[in-house]
Amino acid sequence: MGVHRCRMCAADSVINMRQHRLALCEVHFVEWVEKLSASFIKKHRMFEPDDRILVAVSGGKDSLSLWRILLKLGFQADGLYMDLGVDAGCSYSKNSCEYAEKFAQSIFPEAKLHVLDVAGIYGKTVPEMASRRKGGKKKFCSVCGLVKRHEMNRIARELGYTVIATGHNLDDEAAVLFGNVLHWEAEYLVRQSPVLPADGLGLVKRAKPLARFYERETAAYAIINNIEYMQEECPFSVGATSLRLKEVLNSMENGSPGTKLNFYFSFLRAKKNSLLLVRERPELRSCEKCGQATGAPGLCAFCRLLEPAGVHHSFS
Amino acid sequence: MGVHRCRMCAADSVINMRQHRLALCEVHFVEWVEKLSASFIKKHRMFEPDDRILVAVSGGKDSLSLWRILLKLGFQADGLYMDLGVDAGCSYSKNSCEYAEKFAQSIFPEAKLHVLDVAGIYGKTVPEMASRRKGGKKKFCSVCGLVKRHEMNRIARELGYTVIATGHNLDDEAAVLFGNVLHWEAEYLVRQSPVLPADGLGLVKRAKPLARFYERETAAYAIINNIEYMQEECPFSVGATSLRLKEVLNSMENGSPGTKLNFYFSFLRAKKNSLLLVRERPELRSCEKCGQATGAPGLCAFCRLLEPAGVHHSFS
Fold it and tell me: Once rounded to an integer, what is the mean pLDDT over residues A198-202?
């Protein structure tokens, strides 16, 4: 590591960010993260002071750091923990929930944490929902994502929140972008953005305020601020494509610091300069069952997932 | 390797292409390469039977295989070897030239090989030209590329060739695409294509007929056909960005065969479906000195490179 001194006050640094050529002490690093968050939020018009923000809280470093930052910046931000019923022999969901509750009680007692019990509402855990689909573990992540997006949006609408905030960091966004680029997924490339506006059809506005921070930076922010968080990865993520893409990007980042930052921000610039053609999305309708927007006729993907076995596979 | 049998005749295979789930014997592999080349050439309208093709020949496996394929398919194809004056203690250019000449004499004696001596014409080898630029080895590759593109085009025009063919394989194209994507180079992304039409301003049509073959496949084609070729990489390419990008793609390809093929062809499809917005190129003019098209005022980049030292750095 060597003897890096804080650029602001010459004290011993706690972090040296090669991609920014910037070393900072504890105090100035926390200040830097919060200032940069504020300007990123402003630049992308994520929130206004009167917005009611619902933070998707997983119990991990990113979402808890995000919640802390938003509250420190003076925003109205409540948390939503979704208990997906992942046990896998290590009580994953239960332990994650405890980190989220502990944070809410000890660090910002005035903040509200909503806890959603998926199995309690729908009679099935997410692993049980996913087990009906072919594809095993790989399919699990896509079913889990579908459930989380659907429920997050439903709760936000029902409770009157105006924006949903998620803790995706730069490593997450760069890996998603990399995956989309490997297959040139037009629809996904066009929609990948730090902020997605409400669509007037019931999809609540979504924002990713941490998308410009490396995972290492959000971890440092959590540790410095004594946030206890769930350190294990989800047991179902072992072997996930996103983790392999992250490994590749990490090896490139090691050889050339700033690779991820450049990759993601040059993409955002190219989109802003309209390199990518925004085409009309397929027309959206309201799902017959839950009322949320969907491109499919009849039921949305979430409600199809919950159909009794046999029904959604019968084609007549 | 195991016991793969040729899918066409059940003889022992010489190559197993995991990305195609296809193993072939010598005879059927050569047939497969030539048939696929013919259909790729036709699909992208690279050449007509009356075209006079100038093949850029480096003495390596790709360009010599390309030349052989074009001649076997009945096209009129002559070669151009550009002696760039790379010695670097291993007589690189001299040895490469010998492979090109040997091929021309022994395999297709009716084919014509033009040899261009850059230092003989311009008084400087490419390493000498590059040494005037800052940036060391990294700069060398860009200067070398500039010189080759300029001279290839000049010779094609002077000798009345209608298309230039280069031996870029899928590994080359995927690495270039990867580099362009890492920085979202709009201009380069829009122009990266297996075929670039003549622009009416003196830029000759260019085609890359091998862009759908893996490097391993062009090497196998050369070896099976007893083509002796230069196996060493250019000594200046050590540490080149393109080689690092190739390593990354290779590791991904190993984990998931077909990654490169998918990456490159989904990009071509996305472009065809106009995901990428083709913007107007900057207006081109004729270079005051050589007459070739350039976006710069006054001299083109090649002619600026050849200006006497001191002159092209003086701004008044």
Answer: 85
